[in-house]
From TrEMBL:
Organism for this UniProt entry: Pseudoclavibacter caeni
Stored SUPFAM superfamilies: GroES-like, NAD(P)-binding Rossmann-fold domains
Top-level lineage group: Bacteria
Name of this protein: 2,3-butanediol dehydrogenase
InterPro entries (alphabetical): ADH-like_C, ADH-like_N, ADH_Zn_CS, ER, GroES-like_sf, NAD(P)-bd_dom_sf
Length: 361
């Protein structure tokens, strides 16, 4: 089967590789669509980061580069392994792409399996990936979806689950006011979850194209250009001088974080969603004097079922965020190149490993 294989930074190859073996307790999924994530771009530009380098196998998967990429994907079950009796061939599914130790509890009450030692991701540290024609995944990480939900939109459930977990971490409630810093893919999806849960949502973004995308998708009440207006004052005007109840940092840019510190009300909550590659400056005095909560968030934990239910309820429309569909052979020249050099023009680029669906509008 065809697969996108990560060898090293700036070295991704489309190769023909053997299919994975179907084991007891697993299912084989024919991949319909796989999204390109910012993490994939970081591996390409600066890696290996999550991908285990050649000669350094991952302690859980036991694999080393080259590994198959892709962790945001949807598909259809084509084979069911021994011991799996609640899924069947033909079921539409998405994957919660974790690699965690066999000794880690991942049951429905767990709130921390995503923080376990040596945690990594399918499609980064081994065990196949969504940028291949099919993949074998353990039953625990496979989530069935309604067959009425288009599979291209379903490929966005994984990043939407990141946003859902971030919103959960904030404690945001219906009727509150939220400010999102940054209208990239995760910022837009965070705004989407907030809007669906009944909050008033504002977003701050320099790019006019991204601001317009947020408005066109109907997931924000207003989109501010921080180069033209004082975002803090605009938020205060709309909250009777109090400030936002919750805020989400989705850029890893210092000035954005500083803006959120000023824009939230006393006792407000700031959730840092983006991955920072350097230390940030932090106004500890402001944190104390406003009694702010600043919280980190990473991935998701038992979040997929709630995220799927939100999408299937019709409260979330993921179609506006799909900006391009490409064949696996054009992963780098049409996918990575666009997202690295023309990122304002795209939100989510989907790849069809089989080539199916590319002619559909």
């Amino acid at each position: 089967m065809k697969a996108a294989r990560y060898y090293d930074n700036h070295d991704i190859r489309i190769e023909d590789i053997p299919e994975q073996k179907l084991e007891p307790g697993t299912v084989r999924i024919d991949v319909a669509w796989c999204g390109i994530c910012g993490t994939d771009l970081h591996e390409y530009l600066d890696g290996p980061i999550f991908c285990p380098p050649k000669g350094h196998p991952h302690p859980i998967s036991g694999e080393e580069s080259p590994v198959t990429l892709g962790h945001e994907f949807s598909g259809v079950i084509s084979e069911v392994g021994e011991g799996v009796d609640d899924l069947k061939v033909g079921d539409h599914v998405v994957v919660e792409p974790y690699i965690v130790g066999d000794d880690v509890y991942t049951g429905p009450e767990s709130k921390d399996y995503h923080l376990s030692k040596d945690m990594n991701f399918i499609g980064l540290a081994g065990r196949g990936g969504g940028l291949s024609e099919n993949i074998v995944v353990r039953r625990r990480w496979v989530h069935k979806i309604d067959s009425k939900l288009p599979l291209d939109e379903a490929a966005l459930i994984e990043p939407l689950s990141v946003a859902y977990h971030a919103v959960e971490r904030s404690g945001a409630k219906e009727g509150q006011t939220a400010l999102v810093g940054g209208a990239g893919p995760i910022g837009l999806l965070t705004a989407t979850v907030l809007h669906a849960l009944g909050l008033k949502v504002y977003i701050s973004e320099l790019s006019p194209l991204r601001r317009q995308k947020a408005l066109d998708a109907g997931v924000v009440d207003e989109a501010f250009n921080p180069a033209e207006v004082d975002v803090v004052e605009e938020v205060r005007k709309r909250t009777d001088g109090k400030g936002a109840d919750v805020a989400f940092e989705c850029t890893s840019v210092q000035v954005v974080f500083d803006t959120l510190m000023d824009a939230v009300r006393p006792t407000g909550v700031i959730v840092v969603v983006s991955i920072w590659g350097r230390k940030a400056q932090f106004d500890m005095h402001k944190l104390v004097m406003k009694e702010l909560d600043v919280r980190g968030t990473i991935g998701y934990v038992n979040t997929h079922p709630k995220t799927i239910a939100l999408v299937e309820s019709g409260k979330v429309d993921l179609k506006p965020f799909i900006t391009k569909k490409i064949a696996l052979e054009h992963l780098v020249d049409e996918g990575f190149d666009t997202l690295i050099n023309h990122n304002e023009t795209a939100v989510k680029i989907l790849v069809s490993p089989s080539g199916k669906g590319l002619d559909e509008k």
